[in-house]
Amino acid sequence: MENISRIKEKCVGCKSCEQICPKHCISMVENNDGFWYPFVDEKSCIECKLCLKKCPVENTEFHRNTPKKVWAWRNKNDVDIMRSASGGAADSAAKTILQMGGVVYGAAYDELLAVSHIEVIDEAEREKLQSSKYVQSDPKDSYTKVKQRLSEGKTVLFTGTPCQIAGLYAFLGGDHENLYTVDLICHGVPSPKFFKKYLEYQNKQTAGRVIYFNFRSKDKRGWGTQYLLKTKTKTKTKTKTKTKTKTLSLDRYGKHFMDGDCYRESCYQCAYANTNRVGDLTVGDFWGIAKSHPDFNSPKGVSSVFINTEKGHKLFEMMRPLAEVEEATLEEGMVKQGNLIKPSLRPNERNTFYEKIDEDDFMDSLKVGIQPKERLKAVIPAGAVRLLKKWGGVTEGNYKVSVIVPVYNVAPFLEKCVESILSQTWDFIEIILVDDGSTDNSGLICDQMKQKDDRVKVLHKSNGGVSAARNSGMEMASGGFICFVDGDDYVMPDYVEYMLEQLIKNNADIALTTQMFGNFDEKQVESDEITTWNGEDAVEAILCYRVPIGCYCKIFRTKFLEDVRFIPEIFIGEGFNFNVAAFQKADKVVAGKRKTYYYRRNNPTSAMTKFSIKKCECGLWALDVIKQNLTIHSKRIDAAWAYANWRTHSDFYDMCVLAGVEKEYPEMYKKCLKVTRKDALSALHVPTSKQNKLRAVIMWVCPIAIPFAMRVRKLKYHVNVSNR
Predict the structure, then answer these.
(1) What three-state secondary structure class fits 227?
(2) pTM of the entire predicted model
(3) The pLDDT of residue 717 is above 80
(4) Which of 66, 163, 262, 370 suits 251 as a labelling partner, its CA being 20 to 30 A distant?
(5) Where do the domains of the chain lie, and which CATH numbers do they carry?
(6) DSSP assignment letter at 117
(7) What is the pLDDT of residues 509-529, one digit of tens each?
(8) CA 718 to CA 706: how far, in whole Å?
(9) CA angle 420, 424, 429 (to 5 degrees)
(10) Does residue 58 carry a pLDDT above 80?
(11) Over the chain, what is the mean pLDDT?
(12) What are residue 394's phi and psi, to 5 degrees?
């Protein structure tokens, strides 16, 4: 019989045939891959061939036009542009039509995150259409609804892939005066079944339910290819919502979308992948804007808008007040848009990709590793590739971060620590676990974590102290950047990315954050602020305790640390020494406020937990070493060191009182008390916090007041109190 069944794998899944059949004998049936194809009940078929007459595969010349003009488009509304995949051009078209009292059709998620074309008639629902959905949208009966709305005299906007718009024109039998169409530059579409499997996988990974998904989130790195999802987890007592952001090309779903091995078969022979466009407007990412129009580029995104028809020009002029625009050439708008030239190539992997989709371990079997260099721009912040080249070329080692973790008897905390590092939004990392002769099962846990993820490296060594352990880790590091985490602490998902982004953006030697989470400080800062320091500024800041004195909460360029190491004999104040040595040789240090590190105060084995006379002696020696090795000499550095000297002695005074060892170690107690009283007012002459200044004044008046308050705090929160 002569009907739509002859189309077979060329079918684009637009459902025009299903909607037009007068006998309703065509149904769309899902194949094993998860794509729908027409099934014809031949007993009911009357061979009217209407299904073929209304098929965009059979009628590829419907409404084809070469672009007349190309524009760079940047939405003026911050909310709308941040919700959009690039510059918000398609959304601006929708907003314009709705303001005219018209009707808009486009792809949207339902409550189960399945994607289909919906009808939007008011502004409140327009948000559903914003941003990209990298999965085939189910057109359902949208063509039939469009036809009905047009007959009612409504102005209609239809957005979708070129084949969907071609299907609409074929269904309608041509153009209509009050119909506007926007086709999207399309690479190809994965199946809804694959996306559903992916969501189920994410539910399992997060032990919750995905309630929101955005394939092109700008929340962390701005315009690029990062996805964001939110999951909701319910327990007996409360409901938690978690947010996760990741680079699309390094995700199990995103990688295969970008590799193109999961598309519908018709995508590889698409008749609409060229500059002979089917929509009144064509919209996509203006990837070449940074070179062709650098002043117009924006981290919030820029769209390319191709005007293909007179109606397209009319629509563009109506929506133009919503944006900033700049004229461009066709060649400029086509940069990195290969699907304006030809269809996506069919990889050999497509032959087998969907074979195991029904198996339980399908998603687990999809491996994701380090991607090719050409994907770097989608992974790292804007301008990073140029700077990495300046630092020695775009190689894996250059953009990889080595996270060094000294490990000594931290078994109860170690797994959480490593898991938090493995969950970083920055994927290019190696974790170097240095087991410093642990006597508990910390070493075993290190080996288990190595087996779990090949980004983990383990070094077992005899006990030599935390400084020697970190030095050993630095010798093993192969990354272009180094940061530190203590084995009994843990970090937020953006710990690495946050600092690295600031370092690269500002071409700095060191980047850090001045604040961190802890038992007494669980709230995130209300607003971030990035400060740029030279070496002297940075040294002053850390001596004045405006920066965590430990080596955590900081990231360093590896080459910058070639002649900077920890002093092996120092185990208290070792980070203080290391940081001052690094800071004073830096040309530029950038400091933010965002909390990304959780410093644990309830580890009974921590070096900072129990009083030891050796700790006090080592800490005071470390301070003397800092003074001896200072290469920057100025009045403000001298004043800052005087404050650091007072602060260190007052900290050890607190420890003596809290431990009740005043009589056991009278010389140390008297020495610390003397400096605490005598030099307290040094705090008033340096740029330290108001809290630190108040502490100093209180200790000048009544030294015992501070350790007393700390003891009360300890009882209240049931944690060990320390000064670090």
Answers:
(1) strand
(2) 0.58
(3) no
(4) 163
(5) 4-53 (3.30.70.20), 69-186+275-340 (no CATH), 192-261+349-365 (no CATH), 381-601 (3.90.550.10), 610-724 (no CATH)
(6) E
(7) 999 999 999 866 778 888 899
(8) 18
(9) 105
(10) yes
(11) 89
(12) -85, 85
